[in-house]
Write a structure and sequence with these properties.
The protein has 12 helices and 12 strands.
């Protein structure tokens, strides 16, 4: 039972810090508000033994003094004026109508009767009696006498009606509306407090998500509460260290690339003097592969750094159409479909390099390549490059984005490729704040989907 309860509580408990803080604060404020209102209501409406209250004794003595001073024929009209929700006055002799004096009233009630007799003065009497009401029920009341001997009954309301008759009299009509306004104010200020408390965390989350794609982003403001300022300072220091390491990596790869270009060029020149044409061609192919690998490794290292913040509104149809025309001029067949006039904020050269890598893969490992984009979706723009080829085994769909990862069964050295094309494309897509996914098509082939949110 406890395990089931814990599972249910885990499902109901909010999963975000903002909601958890809001629930805790609002629940605490609401409980304090309800408790304070309950204490006030208990003090006003609760069973406070009004019969024994000194104020109540004085009120009865004042009512008796008023009835003493008015004419006997005017007294019935005054009875309604002096009545209260918990008791009323009746001009009748309860003892003659079947009532009886309470033989042993409780000590406190007896003391109150003594105090009442003293307040009313000489010529008055007060006794606790049991009388029969109009329905024949035995009820408790007080039997009094006015100065002229007129009997007066103080009849108390039934216990179940002690509280309910007070509500329409003591509860102001604006009180429920005031309580509703207070609860709304509690909810509003709770939301404001939690929003202010979690805003730095949300800002830190956005900065952490964009850290991989933009190492040169503006540092976080190091203000706010002490803990938040320390976290922002630590994050800015981490961002600077990562950026410095990335720059150092780029410089190392660039230096290696430049240093390798010279010996590779010398080896190609020497290979031209080899007499054996077969050996010369093989050596030239190996050198060409080495040079391609060096260039693509450098492109992988510089991918995000080259993009920076150089973005502009780009005509998507014109960009892809120019690529398709270039491939057509080179004798490559591929189809293209998409709506004209669609523009997106992007880095055109980076997007062009991504599309070239995807199209090259489609032409190299498949046939019937088609490029299409859809800008009708409310979430943004979707670009697809699909082909009819061998596809990729499902267990390798994510691994092919790793640098130098190759599937020997279908993508080997004979068909070309260094295992860096998709890695470079994935890196550039991440820098452009997009997503790149691969999926096998029904009937064979592969579909690469590139998505940018609006």
């Amino acid at each position: 039972m406890s395990a089931r309860f814990r599972k249910m509580a885990a499902r109901l408990w909010p999963d975000s810090l903002f909601r958890r803080l809001a629930v805790i604060l609002f629940a605490g404020l609401l409980a304090a508000h309800v408790l304070s209102f309950g204490l006030v209501a208990l003090n006003v409406f609760g069973p406070n033994n009004e019969v024994s209250d000194d104020y109540f004794m004085r009120w009865i003595a004042m009512a008796v003094a008023i009835l003493d001073r008015v004419k006997p024929e005017e007294r019935p009209a005054w009875l309604d004026r002096l009545a209260r929700p918990t008791y009323r006055y009746v001009l009748r002799d309860a003892l003659r109508d079947g009532g009886e004096i309470e033989s042993a009233p409780p000590r406190r009630r007896q003391e109150n009767l003594v105090r009442l007799r003293a307040m009313m003065g000489d010529g008055h009497d007060a006794k606790s009696v049991f009388y029969l009401d109009s329905l024949g029920r035995r009820r408790l009341g007080w039997f009094l006498h006015l100065k002229d001997g007129t009997p007066l009954m103080l009849e108390f309301a039934a216990p179940k009606r002690v509280i309910s008759p007070l509500l329409p009299t003591l509860v102001s009509p604006w009180l429920p509306a005031a309580l509703a306004v207070q609860l709304c104010l509690l909810a509003f200020f709770t939301w404001i407090a939690v929003k202010l408390a979690t805003r730095p965390l949300a800002r830190l989350e956005r900065a952490a998500n964009s850290l991989g794609s933009d190492l040169r982003a503006a540092p976080l403001p190091e203000d706010g509460p002490k803990e938040v300022a320390r976290a922002a300072t630590a994050f800015n220091a981490m961002q600077r260290r990562i950026a410095e390491q990335a720059v150092e990596r780029i410089q190392i790869l660039a230096g290696i690339s430049r240093r390798l270009q010279t010996p590779i060029t010398r080896m190609r020149l020497r290979a031209d003097f080899l007499g054996d044409s077969d050996a010369r061609e093989k050596l030239q192919g190996d050198l060409q592969e080495m040079q391609t690998l060096v260039k693509q490794g450098l492109a992988l290292a510089r991918g995000r750094d080259e993009i920076g913040k150089q973005r502009c509104q780009t005509d998507l149809h014109a960009l892809i159409d120019s690529l398709v025309c270039d491939y057509s001029d080179a004798g490559k067949l591929l189809r293209f479909s998409g709506e004209r006039g669609v523009t997106i904020l992007t880095h055109p050269q980076a997007l062009r390099r991504i599309m070239i890598n995807l199209i090259d893969n489609g032409l190299k490992f498949g046939e019937d390549v088609e490029v299409a984009f859809d800008a009708q979706r409310s979430s943004g723009v979707s670009i697809t490059v699909s082909d009819r080829g061998p596809g990729i085994p499902d267990e390798h769909l994510k691994s092919v984005f790793l640098p130098f990862y190759r599937i020997e069964a279908s993508r080997n050295r004979e068909t070309g490729g260094t295992g860096l094309g998709l890695a470079i494309a994935q890196q550039l897509v991440s820098a452009l704040r997009g997503t790149l996914t691969l999926a096998n098509r029904d009937g064979g082939g592969l579909e690469a989907r590139l998505e940018f949110s609006s």
